[in-house]
Automatic annotation (TrEMBL):
Domain of life according to the entry: Bacteria
Name of protein: YubB ferredoxin-like domain-containing protein
Length: 244
């Protein structure tokens, strides 16, 4: 079960200031015409990062990042192809039979037959995309990019949005962690309004509040059971033991 985090975002300013913020806060394709918090509206994840994360591709990525003239050793093969479905014993026999001596020769041999890749739990095509993404963006997939640029690994799940013109309040859920990185970027992008971000981790049972006004951040963090419980109830109407 993922660690669900409840979040509340409040922004206060003039109607003109709030209207300027909305395109960076809400998605363009909200369900049923309703507003939805969308982290991509502020910081868009590159399309090439929207690829699956797999062990086979990671295994290929490691091979591709090694110098091609790296000597091939039995201990490396046993450690690298350690998946129970990778047929290590058979792979070692084939390497010896084909007189494969280096990493480059091994990669070339795999490229000659897609069935070999599949048989030994390797995905060179996806692995190459990981390498290219790592060089260009510093991350292999959207999962790591989200963590770095948003502070959480998936987009928001909107619960409620209250738009009063000069004040907007958004309740939304995230998985694993609170999107503090995204919130701080919002504040830096729009420093002339007042921001409040409150969050509560259900599984981690911690909570916090960040206030931003006049270009100054103030942080509160709660970890004691009673203060977290009181905070969760006051802000999110949550009682310990409630379901998500």
């Amino acid at each position: 079960m993922p660690d669900w985090c409840k979040n509340k975002l409040t922004v206060c300013g003039s109607e003109a200031e709030i209207d300027a913020i909305k395109p960076f806060l809400f998605g363009k394709h909200s369900r049923a015409g309703e507003l939805e918090v969308d982290f991509n509206a502020l910081e868009v994840c590159p399309e090439s990062l929207s690829i699956p994360f797999t062990d086979d591709a990671t295994r290929a990525q490691i091979l591709l990042m090694l110098p091609e003239d790296t000597p091939l050793r039995e201990s490396f093969i046993q450690g690298h192809f350690n998946d129970e479905d990778a047929n290590v014993a058979h792979l070692l026999m084939e390497i010896k039979h084909h007189n494969i001596k280096t990493i480059g020769e091994l990669i070339k041999w795999f490229m000659e037959d897609n069935e070999r890749e599949f048989k030994h739990c390797l995905d060179l095509k996806l692995g190459r995309q990981y390498v290219a993404n790592l060089i260009q963006f510093g991350q292999e997939t959207c999962h790591d990019w989200h963590e770095k640029h948003w502070g959480t690994n998936l987009n928001a799940e909107t619960r409620l949005i209250d738009d009063e013109g000069k004040e907007v309040i958004c309740f939304f859920d995230t998985t694993c962690s609170e999107p503090k990185v995204w919130f701080e970027l919002l504040c830096q992008r729009f420093p002339h309004v007042e921001w409040v971000f409150e969050y509560f981790s259900i599984n981690g049972f911690y909570a916090g509040k960040i206030h931003f006004k006049d270009k100054i951040f103030s942080y509160q963090y709660f970890s004691e059971y009673s203060e977290v419980g009181n905070f969760a109830y006051d802000v999110f109407d949550y009682i310990d033991g409630d379901e998500k």
